[in-house]
Write a structure and sequence with these properties.
Strand order of the largest sheet: 2-1-5
Keywords: Cytoplasm, Metal-binding, Zinc, Zinc-finger
Number of strands: 5
Subcellular location: Cytoplasm
Helix content: 55-70%
Main location: cytoplasm
Low-confidence stretches: none
Pfam families: CTLH (PF10607), zf-RING_UBOX (PF13445)
GO molecular function: ubiquitin protein ligase activity; zinc ion binding
Length: 395
């Protein structure tokens, strides 16, 4: 239910994560190669010491010089200092890039993107309280409602209490509360085209199969699966045939029907259907708002930096001069941006459909027709349009 904010965070952090993994890989490789160089040097020194110790009697100065000269040549060939300097340089380059990526991704002062907005704190408190109830944090929601005095949100409490009771039961593979709710709301689910009820019965049927009772499985299929056969014949057939594979269900060609992931999916489907019948969105409005804010924050920070010299104008701004692009998951209605003025449509400046079927905002039409109150030329085609025939679109 709360994946939207998480997804937005992951998108923002993907570059940081990739860079960190690159630095970590470089560090491990550098450490490994450094150890190899140290081992080579140690090996050559230990070998020469062994040569010295193997000589019977005192070692002559000439022999010592010969052994040390040979060691010097070996170490020069290994060139440990050059190797270590090269490895250090490569690691330093990777490490120096990482802070730059961090600075680019994480702005130390996101308050720059703040502008004065008149919030209805009563509604904000309602949204937060509803969010807590969605998550099953009922004590926290009750506390907020009592302190903020937003009693309107209490209507959702009992509804989400019921949902979480069902979800808690599903976690321990108890489907009775879910079956009872689905049965009570059978007609509404059918009207919405939901097959939630069948999914619940399917899981119940699978649990009976696993217990190894063919009679119980046949009776359950006859009583609870057969009513769905007219719309879901193929799936019902697969379930009924699986009775023949009892005791060796893992070899059944459609063994994916018995995957434990169906329990997790049922919780999601249950939540989605429950919220749908309540007329509520599946995701929390607060989560969507935060996620959208996270995605749009980089654009707002860039705009704030550009307008840094006009701080007062930025703080007093009621409408952004540029659109903030968001993913489709955050777009719940059409947004009109006038192709002439580049301003987003609003209640005061709605989109207007011209007879030539091009659309401009009301203020743009007013400016273009200023010299002629009756006719003006469309900027996108040769047609001349009467101002009176421009029709306001629903906004």
């Amino acid at each position: 239910m709360e994946q939207t904010a998480k997804d937005a965070f992951e998108r923002q952090l993907s570059t940081v994560k990739d860079t960190f993994e690159h630095v970590a890989k470089k560090q491990k490789l550098s450490s490994s190669k450094c150890q190899q160089v140290i081992d080579q040097v140690s090996h050559e020194i230990e070998q020469k010491l062994a040569n010295i110790k193997s000589v019977e009697g005192p070692v002559s100065p000439a022999d010592q010089k010969s052994i040390l000269t040979e060691l010097k040549h070996k170490l020069n060939a290994i060139s440990p200092l050059n190797q270590l300097e090269g490895l250090h340089k490569e690691l330093h380059i990777a490490l120096s890039k990482y802070p730059k990526i961090l600075e680019k991704t994480f702005n130390p002062d996101i308050s720059k993107a703040y502008i004065n907005v008149d919030f209805d704190f009563h509604i904000v408190n309602q949204i937060i309280a509803s969010h807590f109830y969605r998550l099953g944090l009922f004590d926290l929601g009750d506390c907020l409602i009592n302190e903020a005095g937003v009693s309107e949100a209490t209507a959702l409490r009992s509804q989400f209490v019921e949902l979480h009771q069902i979800l808690d039961a599903i976690k321990v593979k108890n489907l009775e509360p879910a079956l009872k709710w689905a049965s009570t709301n059978h007609e509404k689910l059918k009207q919405n085209g939901s097959n939630l009820e069948l999914k619940i019965h399917r899981l119940q049927f699978v649990e009976i199969l696993k217990k190894g009772s063919k009679t119980d499985a046949l009776n359950y299929a006859k009583n609870f699966l057969s009513p769905f056969a007219s719309l879901h014949m193929q799936e019902v057939q697969k379930l009924v045939v699986s009775i023949c594979w009892m005791g060796k269900l893992e070899k059944y060609p459609y063994s994916d029907l018995f995957s434990p992931t169906h329990w997790e999916l049922l919780s999601e489907d249950m939540t989605r259907s429950f919220c749908n019948l309540l007329g509520k969105s599946y995701g929390s409005p607060l989560s969507f708002t935060i996620a959208a804010g996270i995605e749009g924050l980089p654009t707002l920070l860039k705009l704030a930096n550009v307008m840094a010299a006009k701080k007062q104008e930025w703080l007093a701004m009621k409408q952004l001069p540029i659109p903030v692009e968001l993913d489709k998951e955050f777009q719940f209605h059409s947004i009109f941006v006038c192709p002439v003025s580049r301003e987003q449509g609003s209640d005061d400046n709605p989109p207007m459909l011209m007879p030539c079927l091009h659309v401009l905002c009301k203020q743009s039409i007013a400016k273009m027709s200023k010299g002629n109150s009756r006719m003006f030329k469309c900027p996108y085609c040769p047609a001349e349009s009467p101002v009176a025939q421009c029709r306001q679109l629903y906004f």
